[in-house]
Amino acid sequence: MLTFELARPQDAAMLADVQKRTFDDDARRYQDKEEDGPPGYDSVPWQAEQMQQGHYYKLLKDGGIVGGMIIFPSPTEEECHLGRIFIDPLYQNQGFGHEALHFLFVQYPAAKRWTLDTPSWAVRNHHFYEKHGFIRTGEIYDAGSSESIWEYERTGPLAEAGC
């Protein structure tokens, strides 16, 4: 079972380290590259900056940081953008991603719409989001890479249960 806490500046180095391991593992698995990730994924200052700009949660297992997620709610919190979610490769496939999304849906009950983007090549991410009710709504192409755009509309009985 995970616990969730807002990240603090002193967590930035550990979050950058976990994020680098996570994205580099995906790059090796799906792109045949040693290293690759989104902007700032390996930068300590970038992590601290995101703590100021959004709601940056650290995911804790037995007191240690095993992942993180950055949420950008609209002023009314009726819409949230999941800027990033990452779980250390050593802790993947244990249901922690599901726990993290459930936490977000409970933590932001007013959010009826969620958006996110993920690399087009990250097929494991695509499967995860589809399994949790997200729908791919578009693609963004930029400088030789592409991102898939995903949305989730919370309606019906699952919305009432916080899922």
UniProtKB/TrEMBL annotation:
<dbReference type="InterPro" id="IPR016181">
    <property type="entry name" value="Acyl_CoA_acyltransferase"/>
</dbReference>
<dbReference type="Pfam" id="PF00583">
    <property type="entry name" value="Acetyltransf_1"/>
</dbReference>
<feature type="region of interest" description="Disordered">
    <location>
        <begin position="25"/>
        <end position="44"/>
    </location>
</feature>
<feature type="domain" description="N-acetyltransferase">
    <location>
        <begin position="2"/>
        <end position="157"/>
    </location>
</feature>
<dbReference type="InterPro" id="IPR000182">
    <property type="entry name" value="GNAT_dom"/>
</dbReference>
<protein>
    <submittedName>
        <fullName>RimJ/RimL family protein N-acetyltransferase</fullName>
    </submittedName>
</protein>
